[in-house]
Structure formats: structure tokens, C-alpha cells
Amino acid sequence: MIYIGAWCSYLSVKISFEEAYSEAVKDALKILGNHVSKIVTDYVEQKYSIRIGMTADNPSVLDEALDKTIDGGRLIVERRLIRLLFEKLGMEDTISSNDSSGFGQKVSAARKKYDQDLTNRRW
Length: 123
Known about the structure:
Elements: H1 2-13, H2 17-29, H3 33-48, H4 60-70, H5 74-89, H6 103-122
Helix pairs in contact: 2-5, 3-4, 5-6
């Protein structure tokens, strides 16, 4: 029984930050609907030649795409994405939605917390 619990705990850590980020992006964009989501996705793919879910290392690309394509809705999508990212990583959201730091800084903070939690779980 203990072995099964440890195995389940091990499985919950198996998702990489990049996988969780990609899933969070996909889920967060759903609130825009298919048409607008495609516009945002196409913007990133055409301008930067990368898939939108691959912007974890440079979230400013997604931030720019949201700003240029939907402007006012950008903050709503970004807040949702951060919440979903923490959820998918199985971590408590320690970044306040009232936090004035930019989207890129919040993604970096989430990655840092993930890396710290992963290191702590190994020991």
C-alpha cells in the first residue's frame, strides 16, 4: 500500500513544466473561442515560427500575441493561464492575481517554484 502511494506521488511529478505550460495555454485560450484562439495561435506561428504551446521559455511572445490580437482580454487569459499552470503542476498558486509583475515574470516564478519543489521531492 505504501508502495502504491509512493508510485502515485512519483507519477504526479512526471509532467514537465513545458508540458504543463503547453496544456495550460491550450486550456486558457479556450475562453476566447475557436476563431479568436486561431488568430492568436497563427500570430505566434507566423511571426516567430513556433507553436504557441512552446512559448514557456519566452512567454513574452504569447503576451505580445495576446496584446496585438485581443488587447483588453489579454490579462484575463494570462491570469487564467497562470492558475491553470499551477493546477497542472499540482502546486499551490502563490502568485497573487493582484501581483503587479508581468506575465513573463509570473511564468518564471512558477518555473522556479516548480524546480524547487521537484528538487525538494527528490530528497
